[in-house]
Amino acid sequence: MAKSRLNLQAYQKGILERLQQVTAEPGANRSRLAVYAGSERYLLDLRDISEVLPVPTIQPAPLVQPWFLGMANIRGNLYAITDLARFLGVSQQAAVITVESRVLLVHGDFGINAGFLIDNLAGLRSLDEFKLLNMVADVPSHVVGRYEDQQHYQWEVLDIALILEKKEFLQVAA
CA neighbours within 13 Å on the CB side: how many for 122? Predict the structure, then answer.
């Protein structure tokens, strides 16, 4: 019997449709996309992400910051791809791209074709599953919340808009 092949385009479309369904459901503002980047765990608002996809071919650019990976052609549109862990300063090493790695495309409402490389998806999570933690004084401005899961791992809520507005993010030249 022939082994069935994964239709990647259908799989990606399914993920996008599920994200759109979840954001339309009552209580969707309590749902977050949970991701791993570097050694950290992050929660992202579903409205900030338009698509989650396997890592496309990325064309490197010369003389750029180490966190800027380059440009990717996604269905005829160019996207600037950033290593999220390196940009946030939680990793000094270049990302190792594996089969679990993904690129998160930021929503078109931000007016920028950008994507973030992450190490792995942890799935959709409801904030009701977490315990809210107090914010600490030295937390970066793009972290708008901190939570702890049932296994006592800490998760930070990232505000993509605040990351995209950072002067450093727009200055990719080395």
Answer: 17
**CB-based burial, 59-85: b 16+ in 10 Å, e otherwise:** eebeeebebbbbbbebeeeebbbbbbb
Structure pTM?
Answer: 0.82
Tens of each residue's pLDDT in the chain, 174 residues: 455 555 666 666 666 666 666 555 554 578 999 999 999 999 999 999 999 999 999 999 999 999 999 999 999 999 999 999 999 999 888 889 999 999 999 999 999 999 999 999 999 999 999 999 998 888 888 999 999 999 999 999 999 999 999 999 989 998
CA dihedral over 159, 55, 79, 62, signed as positive or negative: positive
Whole-angstrom Cα distance, residue 109 to residue 50? 9
Q: Which two tokens stand for residue 144?
A: 């708008």
Q: How far does CA 115 lie from the centroid of its chain?
A: 8
Helix (H, G, I), strand (E, B) or coil at 30: helix
What is the C-alpha to C-alpha distance for residues 69 and 58, in angstroms, rounded to an integer? 7
Burial class (CB in 10 A: 0-12, 13-18, 19+), 106: buried
Widest CA span of the chain, in angstroms?
60
